Amino acid sequence: MHAPASILPLHIDGLSFEAGGALLLDNVSATLRPGLRTVILGPNGAGKSLLLRLCHGLLAPTGGALRWGAFCNGDEERVRRRQAMVFQRPVLLRRSALANITYALALRGVRPRARRVAEARAALERLGLAPLAERPARVLSGGEQQRLALARAWALSPDVLFLDEPTANLDPAASRAVEAAVEAIHAAGTKIVMTTHDLGQARRLADEILFLCGGRLLEQTPAATFFHAPRTPEAAAFLRGELVG
Amino acid sequence: MNDFDTALATAWRLIAAGDAALMDIVVLSLGVSLTAVLIASILGLPLGATIALARFRGRDAVVVAINALMGLPPVVAGLFVYLLLSRSGPLGAYGLLFTPTAMVVAQVVLVTPIIAALTRQIVDDLWREYRDELTSLGAGKLRAVPTLIWDARLSLVTVVLAGLGRAMAEVGAILVVGGNIAGVTRTMTTAIALETSKGDLALALGLGIVLLTLVLVINAVAHFAGVAARRAAG
Ligand SMILES: Nc1ncnc2c1ncn2[C@@H]1O[C@H](COP(=O)(O)OP(=O)(O)OP(=O)(O)O)[C@@H](O)[C@H]1O
Ligand SMILES: [Mg+2]
């Protein structure tokens, strides 16, 4: 069977997630299309990380469903192989920075070893981590670890990349490097879905905004419109820096 | 007190003289316990890690059983292996009873649950931390087992040492299946038991000191190797 060019678009269909009697995500519906950088905004605890984890297939929804473009249900494993995620707190393996990337490439079936090493070095290079290639990943600084996680995700050339606050721990220069990397990944044809609390970053990167509040999706709006004229009072208050949710 | 002084002197004399019988005993003790721990590690590390990741009915019962087996009395383990290997037992045809092989088997029975149970706990905790990331990268549970064992390696060294300590210290199991035959199945602990019962406390204590020193050296080497590795790998 011929693999489709992309697993996108992703149809999120009435997605709900309930845990411990609390409805953490409430009937979220949206369509994520290729080519657009989607930024998810919302206050702490809105359910942004949860939504990313559900979309990535790490959690099973308690209500609703996901539909990936051409793929029907039951292809979960194959669909996830064409995605990557950079977590809010990335977990790196207790081996060198380089080996963290070659490990991931091996799982995606990249052969032979020499090709994995070459691709991993290129990925480190792109994020300015080449001098740290042989360092144990766990002794890298928080910001370096986050960039390494991004380099690892990038090396997988996924159809979709989910990023959960990728610049939360970074200094301004490293943040700019990550933003440039996200731009480059986008330009290379990967769909970007990210969360951030940095509104300046959202303005710079977003094509469209998903605004989540209290587990409900209040807006899916083109970025220009959202920042200029949000449709909901909650989003307007959020943009003014008021406490919402 | 006096006994203790004599014992120290005896221990020193035994070591300094390079007593051939003592050397045999030391070599056999080390050989049996190290072999048993090696085999128990090969079985117990993947077993513990697999139980940590597996989700099946009755998993809790398996965890409780393995944890309980950590406290298995050595004599009972010995008795169990004795019944297996004795002439009329299912493996009797191999004539293994009262050989070092039988002692290895008994210690494997004793040590495997310790290594499996402690590994299960450590890998359980690590899996909680790694699950999302490994699943995201595309590692199935089967692929995650060796990854988790490797990433827990520094903690697992302590687990293997706990198993080795248990093996080197026990007397019940190897006494039952080995028989404490001089020059064949006599180890440090069985010799200590024998000399004590014969009333030669000095020789018994002397052997005890040799045993303790050996265990101390092994643990010191492992500890400092671990410290160095931790410093290098974070
Ligand atoms: N597996 C879970 N079980 C129970 N509650 C959960 C689970 N995952 C998340 N939650 C809860 O769901 C809510 C949303 O969490 P989530 O991590 O998605 O927030 P967020 O929007 O990413 O917030 P932040 O901006 O602080 O990262 C929180 O109240 C959290 O405590
Ligand atoms: Mg979050």
Radius of gyration of chain A: 18 Å
Note the total helix count of chain A.
9
Unreliable parts of chain B: none
For this structure, the quaternary state is heterodimer
Please give the number of β-strands of chain A: 9
GO molecular function (chain A): ATP binding
Family (chain A): Belongs to the ABC transporter superfamily.
Protein name (chain A): ATP-binding cassette domain-containing protein
Keywords (chain A): ATP-binding, Nucleotide-binding, Transport
Structural commentary:
- The complex is a heterodimer of chains A (245) and B (234).
- Chain A has a domain at 92-157.
- Chain A contains 9 helices and 9 strands.
- Chain A has helices spanning 48-55, 76-80, 97-107, 113-126, 142-155, 172-187, 199-205, 223-228, 233-239; strands spanning 10-19, 22-32, 38-41, 63-68, 83-86, 160-164, 191-195, 208-213, 216-222.
- In chain A, the strands form 2 sheets. In chain A, strands 5-6-7-3-8-9 form a 6-stranded mixed beta sheet, with helices on both faces. In chain A, strands 2-1-4 form a 3-stranded antiparallel beta sheet, with helices on one face.
- Chain B has 234 residues and is mainly alpha-helical.
- Chain B has one domain: MetI-like (MetI-like fold), CATH 1.10.3720.10.
- Helix content of chain B is 81%, strand content 0%.
- Chain B is built from 10 helices and no strands.
- In chain B, α4 (74-85) packs parallel to α8.
- The radius of gyration of chain B is 20 Å and the shape is globular.
- The relative contact order of chain B is 0.17.
- The structure holds adenosine-5'-triphosphate (ATP) and magnesium ion.
- Adenosine-5'-triphosphate binds next to α1 of chain A.
- Magnesium ion is lined by residues 48-49, 88, 164 of chain A.
